[in-house]
């Protein structure tokens, strides 16, 4: 029987699929050193965002045939190193689209109405209504950066809430943007016009620190920014400074340059900042979707069938 290592929490439905063809070991919270030590005995590795699969781990995995990421990105896997060793890397490009889009929308509304801070205030025994006068999203302009699967769903829902939509995405057509009711614009204009900005593109050399001090300086003082895409697209030091100085009105982040988030000026901010611990895909539905999607691909490869590579 082949052996599969599951090194991040995965829905049971995925374990059940893998168990049809393999012995499955679930071992979470392993250190990189522990992973290097045990990986030689496994034919497949299944992860979420918690495990970083480095070249060292891949090279130690002498039996490895496939690495499956139960999520969208494969940015925590050294794909070139895996490819050199003939190891297939697969993911679930659509399984958590709705979950991530809904988290971004929840962040936008929570940020506008200071829901997390108002909740903490009542729970701590206060009844303070003056500190939490918010803003409506109705008739405000939402700038969507990255109009792919998640960005499109956010745009559709935001449109239904009466928001005006603009978008920046160098790779999509005006026709596609028109279909979504979005005016396609340059990033500079989006930064200057939007009341809300939501980021939905991958982290690449082009998008790393795309939102830096210069970009933040172009935003309106009432603007709020949401990042449920990838850490590092926003320069966190510049963002904390812009929020502290009231240069922009708010930010909601689900992802960080380093995860888990360590010591950071962001933690000291008040109601103008909302921080969640990479929860975009954390719904029961999405976790079932991605577990099935990736477990089936791993099962197929272990059975000698062809795989769809990430
Ligand atoms: P997608 O591939 O469907 O869409 C990404 C879009 O970004 C594409 O339309 C692409 O053209 C565009 N893009 C690429 N480079 C760009 C650039 N320089 N500027 C602007 N747009 C650019 O991907 P998706 O499934 O919609 O995922 C979007 C992001 O959300 C990814 O970074 C993904 O890893 C992340 N994500 C996060 C969570 C979470 O838990 N927080 C969950 C799922 C996905
Ligand atoms: C993803 O890429 O799908 C997300 O970051 C979600 C996750 O893996 O938890």
Automatic annotation (TrEMBL):
Molecular function terms from GO: NAD binding; phosphoglycerate dehydrogenase activity
Catalysis performed (reactions): (R)-2-hydroxyglutarate + NAD(+) = 2-oxoglutarate + NADH + H(+); (2R)-3-phosphoglycerate + NAD(+) = 3-phosphooxypyruvate + NADH + H(+)
Pathway(s) the chain acts in: Amino-acid biosynthesis; L-serine biosynthesis; L-serine from 3-phospho-D-glycerate: step 1/3
Enzyme Commission no: 1.1.1.95
GO biological process: L-serine biosynthetic process
Keywords assigned by UniProt, alphabetized: Amino-acid biosynthesis, NAD, Oxidoreductase, Serine biosynthesis
Top-level taxon: Bacteria
Signal sequence, start to end: none
First-level EC class: oxidoreductase
Known function: Catalyzes the reversible oxidation of 3-phospho-D-glycerate to 3-phosphonooxypyruvate, the first step of the phosphorylated L-serine biosynthesis pathway. Also catalyzes the reversible oxidation of 2-hydroxyglutarate to 2-oxoglutarate.
Family the entry assigns: Belongs to the D-isomer specific 2-hydroxyacid dehydrogenase family.
Protein name per the record: D-3-phosphoglycerate dehydrogenase
Organism for this UniProt entry: Aliterella atlantica CENA595
Residues of the full protein shown: 1 to 310 of 526
């Amino acid at each position: 029987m082949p052996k599969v290592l599951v090194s991040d929490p995965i829905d049971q439905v995925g374990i059940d699929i893998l168990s049809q063809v393999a012995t499955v070991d679930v071992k979470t919270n392993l250190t990189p050193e522990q992973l290097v030590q045990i990986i030689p005995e496994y034919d497949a590795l299944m992860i979420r965002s918690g495990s970083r699969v480095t070249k060292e781990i891949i090279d130690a995995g002498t039996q490895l045939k496939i690495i499956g990421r139960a999520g969208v990105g494969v940015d925590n896997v050294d794909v070139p190193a895996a490819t050199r060793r003939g190891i297939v890397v697969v993911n679930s490009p659509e399984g958590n689209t709705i979950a991530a889009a809904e988290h971004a929308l929840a962040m936008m509304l929570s940020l506008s109405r200071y829901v997390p801070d108002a909740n903490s205030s009542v729970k701590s025994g206060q009844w303070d209504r003056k500190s939490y006068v918010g803003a409506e999203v109705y008739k405000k302009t939402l700038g969507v950066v990255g109009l792919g699967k998640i960005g499109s769903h956010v745009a559709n829902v935001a449109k239904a809430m009466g928001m005006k939509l603009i978008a920046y995405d160098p790779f999509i057509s005006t026709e596609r943007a028109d279909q979504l009711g979005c005016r396609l614009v340059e990033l500079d204009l989006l930064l200057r016009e939007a009341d809300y900005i939501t980021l939905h593109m991958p982290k690449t050399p082009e998008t790393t620190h795309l939102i830096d001090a210069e970009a933040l300086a172009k935003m309106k003082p009432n603007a709020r920014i949401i990042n449920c895409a990838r850490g590092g697209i926003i320069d966190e030091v510049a963002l904390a400074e812009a929020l502290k100085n009231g240069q922009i009105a708010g930010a909601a982040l689900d992802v960080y340059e380093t995860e888990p988030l360590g010591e950071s000026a962001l933690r000291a901010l008040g109601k103008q900042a909302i921080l969640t611990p990479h929860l975009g895909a954390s719904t029961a539905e999405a976790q079932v979707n991605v577990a099935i999607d990736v477990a089936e691909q791993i099962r197929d490869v272990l059975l000698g069938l062809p795989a769809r590579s990430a």
